[in-house]
Amino acid sequence: MPHNVFLALPLPIKLALPLSRARRYFIHDTAGLDWQGIDDMHVTLYFFGETRDIQLVELKKQIGKTTSEIERLKLRYECITFALPGRVPKIIWAEFTATDAYRFFVHELSNIGFSIAGIKPPHKDIIPHATLARIRTPEEISLDDVSRVERIESQLGVPDLSAREYLVTYCDLLVSRPAASGSRYELLERFYFK
Predict the structure, then answer these.
(1) Less packed terminus of the chain by CB within 10 Å, N or C?
(2) Is CATH 3.90.1140.10 what the domain over 3-192 is classified as, yes or no?
(3) pTM to 2 decimals?
(4) What is the C-alpha to C-alpha distance for residues 19 and 30, in angstroms, rounded to an integer?
(5) How many whole angstroms separate alpha carbon 184 and alpha carbon 182?
């Protein structure tokens, strides 16, 4: 049976907790926002998509080999924004700096995805981000919603967040399962960096 699989970096609680407070600035929820729970917040490294059991065995093996050769990754918070820039917003996310180590690791993951599952590498760099909320009705996003996203950073204490780097010591291979309130994620395996 195929599994909807992706690799993710956990958000340290020192980072996830202040970011989870963003929802309190959207009391009047005109856009129909589905907020991520704090336990589901993560930075997606690479989405492998539907992966069969036999591919999953090889995928775990290759990810384990690669992560054991990679130094721990650092996350540096940048901003909260609508995603994707230049398109109708469908997500509110926290964006992070793409370090050279991050780019290298994602490149290695795309090679693994192509060799095992035939997934073509992305045309553009993947923006490191953590989804905070999905927008059910993007056509209802107003200029007021946009300005509210721009204002909430100062209210979250984000200057403190952006002043620090967060060291991430492992990544998780997760499976996404549909649920009534959006997707729920289950841990398949944890991989530690060198």
Answers:
(1) N
(2) yes
(3) 0.81
(4) 20
(5) 7
